[in-house]
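Okay, can you check this protein?
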Amino acid sequence: MKKQIIIIGAGASGLAAGISAAREGASVTIMEHTARPGKKLLSTGNGKCNITNLQLPAEAYRGNQPDFAYPVLNAFTVSQTMDFFKDLGIVLTERNGYVYPNTGQAATVLEAMLFELEHLGVRIVTDCRVEEIKKDLTVVTDKGKQKGDRIILAAGSMAAPKTGSDGSGYDLARKLGHRIITPLPALVQLRCKEKWYRQAAGVRTDALVTLKTDGKTAASDRGELQITDYGISGIPVFQISRYAARALNEGQQVTVQLDLLPELPFSDLETLLLERQRRFGYRPAEEFLHGVLNSKLAKVLLKEAGIIRASWVKEITTREVKNLVRCLKDLKTVIVSTNAFDQAQVCSGGVDTKEVDPVTMESKLIKGLYFSGEILDVDGICGGYNLQWAWSSGITAGIHAGRG
């Protein structure tokens, strides 16, 4: 008789688990509390679905046990992921290591997975809210009860709640005895204390962004910084944001240092500015950085450096030039909070990975219970890494649940 596998959650990880479990010969039912499967998948990669990334830096995954992810990724690799989607009929394209469907449409990926699930006879039950998982692997829902031989909990996190991520999976895991590391927003914007952000809102510029918690460097990244009316955004901010969220949650002082001209060392920048002062002494002082930075941001920095009082460039003092160098290379901003879960791409935190076997994805507490995807305390950096985690963990869980 076929093993009865129940998968809770029809996101990327749950759908991948369903395919792999069914291919192992199991009878699979996927339960989804929203009206349609794969809603969050449709929004990934700005709707283009960044399936994976050919590069795998050591710091790509974070959590209380950051090494937990790598045995799972080695069990189902990037290469195997690409073969998996090619087998579903998806033509892939690669741009600087980033892998997308050639159609440029996330819907293509979702539809291909749904076609395969239908072909394999997998049953997807939507608008089905799971209320409890009993230790005998009976699943209690608002549509009745169903007993499984194996259960895969792939219910997602709390990030992007409009796509169905409501954190309900955490409660299900907690009631079964699993520890939940406090979920916090990750890959998210940071809100800052200073008032000048409103004046520079909309500016995008290359920057090195360094996060400090209680004065110690916690993380840094370089890329396109986006200034908003409340603080900072952009890929380098997203990459460090999970550390900011956790430090703020622990009551630490969180600051960010912005290097707005990362190509220039301090001494070279000072030489450049002194030369500009000599060359353009006849210009209005507010135009001192004309051609160096976006004019909106330049005016803010001139004010921060105390240069706003001067009428002409030639009146700027050497001390003010040094202050301006500091503002350009080491602009300190105080972080007061992250944006909320509705702005976050993923969560930091989740089911404690110490209680999960990384070889099989099976719970160490409840035999026959498996986990996959964002519900676990694993979060990746931007660039296809969170979807790769969904595929690797989901397919690994599906294989072992289907075989076990």
